[in-house]
């Protein structure tokens, strides 16, 4: 059974049985612009409202995601960088609140904002031979918002956290697997996606309720979620 | 003794003995744009570095300040409204951390962001016959950032706080004086400024140290200041 | 224009133009049992989903509400008192999150849990001649949950807060009006309800959006709301 | 009925029926030294373990208390000022946790640390004609520890709080009564103590339990108490 | 030297030199009912008041503990499940505050509430061949209270935490040892208890004071302890 | 290129290219007295104001540091122990806020306060054959201030944290390397310092800005830094 929800644009959502695959499409760097964030958030909202029981995110090409879309921010960086960061944090929150398990099948570089997006998933499967997990922050003189730092802190051992942020270490799949950043290592992109689908397939058979799953995840990271909500919800006009 | 520091543009800083007067100049509404925020923050930085012992803020014309500069935000409201809010919260923080007492001599309307700016001062003197203290938020469908709400909560009795925010009550000078929003009521603009200068003159004679004064204020509002710092300091690039 | 939504049981929800009236019906003490909490929460959910623009809560008889239903808790107080407290805090949260202004037209005693329910509204109108605002806690050796204390602290001046809780002072309408616990004082029940409807009628004419109103209230009391959510959301089974 | 527990030294504890009177004895300024703090804390511990149902604190002479004992701190101010502040905050905590209502019968100046001690009580009765409530901090360049600021903030309206701390306003009895800093105003020291005893006598008749009373107060000020405990409990050696 | 304190019922407390052994007795699943929680809390109170210097908890039969007593909660799950959870969190708090080191000699399954109880100890020794550490939450649609989640988060590496909660991984002794969930692995129940006693025996020889030990543990987990205290202490009646 | 800034006394600051070496000089135990804390803080302030891009801290002799100077605290331990703890926490804060990476080249024992100082650095290089990382707290009945505990918790895996604090385990270089307490292990003191300089040399070549580096570190540990600032900043006199 397979159903195609939406495939125009920068990402697609496909259904395989009770599993949804969210794919960053095309050979681009999958950088976060308002358009990409908006499409991703719509797909996740579709997932939340569906009766599917797992979400697997993956990518075409050489990049899972290479971070913020600096082309888009360039004309007015002072206002646009904070804006797109906030959009990215809302996307992270969507994943942290989603009522089903989330798997990142990382088939290429996950850098900067792309690292955040990868770490916002519950589980990570990575290619052995290609791609880095890399927080570019220190190399591009970018100060992470505290909510984004808090996401990384909640998901990494203390030494990995500081090597990732303060040293800008590029974790290959093998390194990432050794320090617990990923859950499984596979030969190539096809095997990476297959492993994610296999793990999801096994898990969706178990009798958990989707509301309970979402509730459990909320209870695990209350300070993180509260901080992201505070950061990403500050003032603005509401119009009809 | 009088010294003029800076008067070009939208505001000026003048010195009268050991008191600095920060004036929102001209017959405009003194709305907060990046330019006005930047000039105000530079004046406050000048004050902080000077040997003056009090700051009195006042205004020309009919408005103390009428809030955000919506002309400036209009071309790209989604990115510019959060940006200017953050600038305004940084300005509020500058006042909350300034190493001398701050007096707002409010000679006209203080609405929306103008209310925040007025409430960020330690003391308020207001005209009896003209001007309102008014949080326009409910009438313009504007959701205050939590840090701005926290500023108002820290400075108002609970009933005044909810009438101000949820009812959008317009407090005249007389009403404001009755509920403790202002410290003194005067006949006109000249008397309002004079009263602020008189209060400041008396206080600067006392033997307090400027570092102790700043430390005391910080110890009074730690949660407020922490919240404003978190909100206004999230990520961005730092370049030379 | 008038529409009757639901009137069976312990409370009813009626519509007058764009105002909903939530009435605690009958000559009882309107004590909080699971049944009453459930009915009230259903009415508030109905209100939230409707296109109405204000909610007025009022009561028949001599009691706005006299607190927890101790008849219901008596057979197993150790498990049932915490349970009903949690239900009451959820009801308070529903009001704090409702997307429209809330008015309590208090026509009789509001004691213990009834005081909490009254204080959870945005505005309060009270009879001059009858009824007390009274936290019975100290007189019945009842320790308020911290979230309930936090609600009262957020809505009262410090001196009123301690006289209310630690002295068990019974505030008559006149006393309550003097210290800012209520917004208006009326002669009798009919005038009390009429005043609430009049205030609401005026306010609903203004062009605020319901989502913005809800967002504003959330930004005013973030610590209170977070505390109530933590307290009222702890673990349990989720079943289909 | 009267019983004398302890009267040597700087303070005494006497029993009148079910009321204990803690008296700062002698015509001194009752400044807080380790010796005075220790004696006061012992008396409060005695009170906590007794079957008495109220504590009234009062003073001989012209001072309720004039603050820290600067004679004691003078030889080594850098280590001794923080030490005695911590002792004072522990004393404040003892009062905030005491299992009975506390009344300060303030018969003279309550300044600096003496203001903190007075405000740590549940209720305050003051002489009309003599004595000030006065936070000397701004005049002596003393930065309040955040826990002490938090005590004052929890007990005062926002405007009073800032006038007290940032202006160093000296509140006479009449001023203090107007702004809710005290609960009753009396002609002289005898009437002040008598009023405190009368209020206590009426209250002890009511059927509250001491554990419930203590629990109620804890639930009212959780952030304040947590902050004071954090501040006053940091590291040290524990020896047999 | 050996002394038997209490052995009736579901658990016993025995003394071996300066070590106390708390045993979950009988071939049952040692599920947490009010009776079992109450007996365990009494034993821990006895331990706290004794001059013993270590506590070793162990079990008869195949289960360390299999979680809440669902037979007891079944007649009224809505009120009884939150009640017993609160009792369990109080038991966890008792261990976190106990004035001596705590060792869990885990001779069988520690599942759901049983996992929480095991993780509340300072150290864990486990059988190699039998028993799982297993948070059943996801499989029984049970949302952990935030305080219980916080206990697990404080004691596990981030990857183990999410595999434990979100995947419901069953950790055998060997797996648990590899990821640092346990401190030592032994062949059978006798060796497991012996190893715990040996570790305790060595440690009790060192010259630490019991009050300092308790203070140290409190300083290690302040947010966890504060959260558990808030969750488990909400309102109720206090009667003589 | 080499420049000597300051070498008198207990520690020196030397410059090697863009790297500063802070050396605890002499064959002593390098215990923290007011004098040593003051000298270290002055050196770190010098570093912060310089154009250097890395700080390497190392030691002469057999001790990196053996903790507080108990000779200095002995005459008045009740006031002096809290005082020197606060000084040490300020020193830790200086390192956590320094605008360049910090490396501890640990050539000997780092015990008690010395462990805190070592863990306050970003990276640690240690001798293989000599020296322990050891929190003496449990063995000397010393209760860590919560801010100091929070530093250790932020830098260690949960199991290491509890073995370090509650067991007083002495981690040799080899043990420390296995559990991620140090980043590199070297044969002797010369090699240890050389490795730190080599790591720093490589890192200073990269194009990071110093303000961004400091901002990144602040965003990683906001609760830790806030807690340390609260603990170390409580009241005191400010004099000219």
TrEMBL record, chains A, B, C, D, E, F:
It comes from the Eukaryota. GO terms for biological process: fatty acid beta-oxidation. SUPFAM superfamilies: ClpP/crotonase. Pathway: Lipid metabolism; fatty acid beta-oxidation. Coiled coil: none annotated. GO terms for cellular component: peroxisome. It catalyses: a (3Z)-enoyl-CoA = a 4-saturated (2E)-enoyl-CoA; a (3E)-enoyl-CoA = a 4-saturated (2E)-enoyl-CoA. Its EC number is 5.3.3.8. The keyword Zinc does not apply. The keyword Glycosyltransferase does not apply. Keywords: Lipid metabolism. GO terms for molecular function: delta(3)-delta(2)-enoyl-CoA isomerase activity. Belongs to the enoyl-CoA hydratase/isomerase family. PANTHER family: ENOYL-COA HYDRATASE-RELATED, ENOYL-COA HYDRATASE_ISOMERASE FAMILY PROTEIN. This is Delta(3)-Delta(2)-enoyl-CoA isomerase. It comes from Adiantum capillus-veneris (Maidenhair fern).
